[in-house]
Structure formats: C-alpha cells, structure tokens
C-alpha cells in the first residue's frame, strides 16, 4: 500500500526540531558517501518561462529513494497561485515498492529553514544576536522559528519590497521593519535572503565583518540571484551540493561566468564541514555564506520522518498502486 499525505496531513505531522536534526544527518550522510545526491534535471522549453525540476536522492540510512518534481511557474503569480508547487514520490530502498506520495510545498518550506538552521549553527558566530531578513513571506516565518532554535537572537530586523508585508510580519513575530535591504544587512549578525529575485537585492559592499549569510530565496535558475558578485567573492562560501550549485544556482554561476572567482571558491559542501572534512568559520571577522539552492536529500530526510509519524499516528490515506 502507498501512503498519501496531503498538505494538511503534513502540517499535522511535521516537527521543525526533528526536521533540523534529520537534515543535519542527511548532509553528514552525503559527505560520508552513504547517500546519493545527483544534480537535478531541469525541464525547460526554449522561450518558455515555466520550468520543471526533477530532484532525486537516495539514502541508505533512511531506506528510501525519492524524487521531487518541482514546478516553477512565474505566471502563477498573476493568477494568485503559488509560483512553486511540488510533489514527492518515495520508494522503499528494500523492495522498490511505492512507499508514499507527499505534498511537497510544506515539506520544502520546513526543510529549507532547517538547512539554514544547520548552516547557521555550523558557520555563524556563536555570539550572533541580530537576525536580519530580506523578504517577509512564508519562508521568513519558518526561518525565524528554525534559527531561534539554534541561536538566542535578541533582535530581528526585516525588509520586504512590499511595506505592508513587512509590517504584518513584524506584528506577528516581534521583528523590527526597516526601510531598505541595506539597513537589514548592516544591522545583522545572521542574514537570510528570502526573495525570488532575478537581480541582486543584497550588495557585498554592505557586509560587516563576522556576518553569516543564508542565501535562500532565488529560484533554481542559472540567471537568478539575490547576492551580487562582490558579496559572493568576499565570503567563505559553503554550498548544499556542488553538483546542484554548479547546475542551477545563479548566485554561483553568474560570478563564475564573469570570472570573479573560480569553481574552487564554491566547492565545499555543508556536509563536509559538518563531519570536519572541510573547515567552517576560521575567525570571528570572517564572512561566511551558505548557498542554499535546496536538494532532494533534504526532502527525503523530511519524508522519512513524515512517513514514520503518519503510520504511528494513523494519519494519511492508503491506496493500492500497481507494482
């Protein structure tokens, strides 16, 4: 039987602390070679805006192979629909049976924030107390919860292109809205960029010594980025997956095409830092940056938790699929 978990099922089951721990383990497994994370396959027609990203992963410890099909359809914004939608298919690694089909949107939001929390705990200064957010949508809410779980932030500053969105976010979270992205960057000890930007919204000239950046929001397209080339060059960059970053991350690919730095500048993965194979922060004044494109292995880690929790609690719908 195949377990089907809807968005409401996922919301009833998901636990952010558990997802943070699972994402940490998944990245360590990748570095140890007990998980497989190939580059995603992008499906795009020439001259067409919609893109579909095929994101596979396999984990020995989780006993699953998964694929997430992510639709990135900018035209949905004008329809009042989510720009990104996704579904996750999970197969048993033991016998190949179809274990589950999960709504991907909530999983993506939680595992993305969890990865930022893992990167922040690993790369940020332990005395970081000001969290800065560029963008105030759903990802921002989840990031506040996730990052508060790893560092005791005393102040949160936020900016959004839409002032009303920033003020509504501030009313719900206690954040302080400011008038520009630059104000956020200059105030922050830890900065999260959470916008679907095509052109940079954050400049390296604004970076203070000791800053940690989670570059999260740009969609998986080689011509979209949130951080300018000077910012990427000035930072110690850690990626979630080399193969993914060098295929779909505009934050990485645009400076590479410009000759601002070589591939070695963006060659270290988060899992390698977690297991001590690559260095993390080397000094208090160093600027660190986690380039978070999002990988299928993070979806797999969350899916394992959700499948187990659903079966324990009797949540979800079982269907009989051929095979």
Question: How would you describe what is shown here?
Answer:
With 323 residues, this protein is of the alpha/beta class. The strands form two sheets. Strands 1, 2, 3, 4, 5, 6, 7 and 15 form an eight-stranded mixed beta sheet that branches. It has twelve helices and 15 strands. The radius of gyration is 19 Å and the shape is globular. The protein has helices at 7-13, 16-32, 76-79, 104-123, 138-148, 163-173, 181-187, 229-234, 242-248, 250-258, 270-274, 296-313; strands at residues 2-5, 35-36, 41-43, 51-59, 64-72, 84-92, 98-103, 130-134, 155-159, 176-177, 190-193, 212-215, 236-239, 288-291, 317-319. The protein has two domains: 2-107 and 297-319, ornithine cyclodeaminase, domain 1 (2-Layer Sandwich); 125-295, 3-Layer(aba) Sandwich (Rossmann fold), CATH 3.40.50.720. The model has no long low-confidence stretch (mean pLDDT 96). The longest helix has 20 residues, at 104-123.
Percent of residues in β-strands = 15-25%
Distance between the ends: 10 Å
Largest sheet: 8 strands, mixed
CATH superfamily of the largest domain: NAD(P)-binding Rossmann-like Domain
Number of helices: 12
Subunit organisation of the chains: single chain
Structural class: alpha/beta
Mean residue pLDDT: 96
Order of helices and strands: EHHEEEEHEEHEHEHEHEEHEHHHEHE
How many separate domains? 2
Low-pLDDT stretches:
none
What is the 3D shape?
globular
Q: What would CATH call the architecture of the largest domain?
A: 3-Layer(aba) Sandwich
- For the record, what CATH class of the largest domain applies? Alpha Beta
Helix content: 25-40%
What is the number of beta strands?
15
CATH fold node name of the largest domain: Rossmann fold
Radius of gyration: 19 Å
Organism: Nocardia aurantia
Pfam family, one: OCD_Mu_crystall
EC number: 1.5.1.49
GO cellular component, one term: cytoplasm
């Amino acid at each position: 039987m195949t377990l089907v978990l809807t968005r409401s099922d996922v919301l009833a089951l998901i636990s952010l602390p558990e997802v943070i721990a699972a994402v940490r383990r998944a990245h360590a497994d990748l570095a140890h070679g007990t998980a497989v994370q190939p580059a995603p396959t992008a499906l795009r027609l020439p001259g067409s805006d919609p893109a579909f990203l095929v994101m596979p992963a396999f984990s020995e410890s989780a006993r699953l192979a998964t694929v997430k099909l992510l639709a990135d359809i900018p035209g949905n914004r004008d329809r009042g629909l989510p720009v990104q939608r996704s579904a996750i298919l999970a197969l048993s690694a033991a016998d190949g049976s179809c274990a589950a089909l999960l709504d991907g949107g909530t999983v993506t939001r939680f595992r993305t924030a969890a990865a930022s929390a893992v990167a922040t705990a690993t790369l940020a200064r332990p005395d970081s107390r000001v969290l800065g957010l560029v963008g105030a949508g759903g990802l921002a809410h989840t990031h506040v919860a996730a990052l508060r779980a790893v560092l005791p932030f005393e102040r949160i500053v936020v900016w959004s292109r839409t002032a009303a969105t920033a003020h509504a976010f501030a009313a719900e979270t206690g954040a302080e809205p400011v008038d520009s992205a630059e104000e956020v960057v200059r105030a922050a000890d830890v900065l999260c960029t959470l916008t679907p930007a095509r052109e940079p919204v954050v400049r390296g000239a604004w970076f203070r010594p000791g800053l940690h950046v989670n570059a999260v929001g740009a969609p998986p397209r080689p011509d979209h980025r949130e951080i300018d080339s000077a910012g990427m060059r000035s930072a110690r960059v850690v990626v979630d997956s080399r193969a993914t970053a060098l295929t779909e991350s505009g934050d990485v690919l645009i400076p590479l095409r410009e000759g601002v730095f070589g591939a070695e500048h963006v060659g270290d993965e988060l899992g390698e830092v977690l297991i001590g194979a690559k260095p993390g922060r080397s000094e208090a004044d160093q600027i660190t940056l986690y380039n978070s494109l999002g990988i299928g292995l993070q979806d797999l880690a969350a899916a394992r938790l959700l499948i187990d929790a659903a079966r324990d609690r009797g949540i979800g719908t079982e269907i009989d699929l051929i095979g």
